[in-house]
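User: Could you write out the 3D structure of this protein bound to fe (ii) ion? I've included everything you need below.
Assistant: Certainly. Input first, then the structure.
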Amino acid sequence: MVPTIAWAAESAEELLKDLGNRRAHVQGVAKRAIEISRVVPPDDRPYLVAAAYLHDIGYAAVLRRTGLHQLDGAAHLRQLGRERLARLVAHHSEARFEVEVRGAGHLLADYEPDEQSVRDALTYCDMTTSSTGTRTTLTSRLVEIEARYGESSEPAARQILVALERSLPHLKKAVESTERRIHALLASGSREPMR
Ligand SMILES: [Fe+2]
């Protein structure tokens, strides 16, 4: 079942409506995904954009099960029969590192990773959009995340920082490979706008 963008946008809006900045961030990530969707093959584009809208729904209190937003969001989508979106959300932005540090690697193993180019593009959109939804760079985004969790004394915050450090080379690789695809499209002189 190919997801419609309107369905994904409405679902995210409903689930994240009370989560302030998280909602703004998600809207920014989705906007970026729409802008760069041509970096993935046509059939994959609706999945990239829908996953961008839905990647953080696991933060919604109503979906909270494991406390890992990637897995909680994925479980909800799987329950709705949206299997490919579930897999994209489960693995978004190198989730495996955080999931492993939190001792839930066996739960993530239930979700097969999607095509590398689609996963990279989703990571690119998430990592180049700030917590308030504005465009940013990977470096600034990492500084922002480190500052946010660095202030917390929660054990989970410490684990997130450890995972972030481990995932860094992979995040960089995903962002750089997507940037290369964007530049190749621009250089090819395609008449469709790449904003
Ligand atoms: Fe995100």
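The pocket of fe (ii) ion is lined by residues 25, 29, 55-56, 126 (CB under 6 Å).
User: Perfect, thank you.
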